[in-house]
Amino acid sequence: MIFKLNEEQLANQEKYRAFAEAKVKPLAEEMDENEKLDEGLLDDLKKEGFLGIPFSKEYGGVGGTYLDYCLAVEELSKCDGSTGVTISVHTSLCCSCIDSFGTEEQKQKFLRPLVDGTSYGCFGLTEPNAGSDAAGQQTEAVYDEAADEYVINGSKIFTTNAEFADYCIVFAMTDKSLGTKGITAFVVDLRSPGVKVNPSIKRMGIRAASNCEVFYEDVRVPAANRLSEEGKGFKIAMKALDGGRIGIAAQAVGIAQGALDIALAYVKERHQFGRPIAAFQTTQFKLAQMQTEIDAARLLVYRAATTKDDGEVYGPQAAMAKLKASAVANDVCREAVQLMGGYGYCREYQAERYLRDAKITEIYEGTSEVMKMVISGAMKVK
Ligand code: CAA
Predict the structure, then answer these.
(1) How far apart are CA 112 and CA 68, in angstroms?
(2) Ligand 1 centroid, distance to 300 Cα (angstroms)
(3) Are 173 and 138 in contact (CB under 8 A)?
(4) Which domain range does residue 190 map to?
(5) In a domain? residue 2
(6) Is the pLDDT of residue 362 over 80?
(7) What's the gap in Å between 370 CA and the centre of ligand 1?
(8) 370 lines ligand 1 (CB under 6 A)
(9) Any alpha helices (H) in 108-151, and if so which ranges?
(10) 365 is catalytic
């Protein structure tokens, strides 16, 4: 069993870190304030290959591993959680669906532009009334035989990346009587007539990320855009989320490490009672605990990612990584703000942004409660 990154992984990590430090960090505060990602940054991420890390070079991807992709999400999130989730949703929720379930033709048509840095993608599963209960889909797709097209009607909420994405994996009921077996997945071009993307929803954290309600009104989608067979959509969504949860766990680790790094620099500078507050053992012990928790979460992320890379069952490992890393992110960010006292609470010092960003990691791509359902399910508790 190997607990260390190899030389190639370390070199990739260094490359992602250098990019994040140079291109993401200087913009993070302003993007949070403006509640919008910088357009130059979105282009730079494309140019530097961040959109195609774990995908084959055959389709224009980078040809890296899932672990490489997690290292990238962690490094981006260390500087900015919004940038981290943008790449995570694009990669694990959108591209992975086409990579795993698309035909050769669909890969050439949709996966190639998504992974070669031409287009961004998103994932439309959650609906106003179908969150944790993802099977409760109300969006419908009706097959029009004469046109060999499906007509989609409905709405999706919390669609990350929707404002600038070109393609969305949309899940819709093709047969309401069949429950989860009546859900079908489609690749929808968001420029299609009938698609309306609302402005980003105002949120507590990851404020720069695009996160929208999307309406589909008589949207005509060629049957050639259907992923796999009718009725396979729920399993496609669940598989994508298994991988997505590792990405979000990596995001949580990055957010936690970013907040700790800020607090660590602060306690060395800040003097109270005639000494830097780093000189107090209470401070040292807090920092030691925080770093240990982050490293434990990071190892769970690495385990889940390498299990996926090895082609083994990784859903429960992904859920454990997300459950632990998201809790650690929230605890560490809260402690970071506390260590920095009144300054920790001020926007200028940035720790509060990490605390706001951390909360969502316990909610999206499956709440912590859903993670426990997945883990206990695999343990065959009942
Ligand atoms: N892989 C493959 N198949 C799976 C699976 C998986 N991980 N999980 C379940 N399935 C299959 C089951 O085997 C079952 O198939 P059969 O009927 O053939 O046996 C079928 O799916 C139904 O399974 P369940 O009965 O377990 O389904 P459920 O309705 O009880 O739901 C759940 C289980 C785990 C709660 C699931 O609904 C879930 O994960 N909910 C959370 C949804 C979620 O994470 N949403 C996030 C959306 S994306 C987002 O956050 C926005 C963003 O952009 C960041």
Answers:
(1) 19
(2) 21
(3) yes
(4) 121-231
(5) no
(6) yes
(7) 9
(8) yes
(9) 112-115
(10) yes
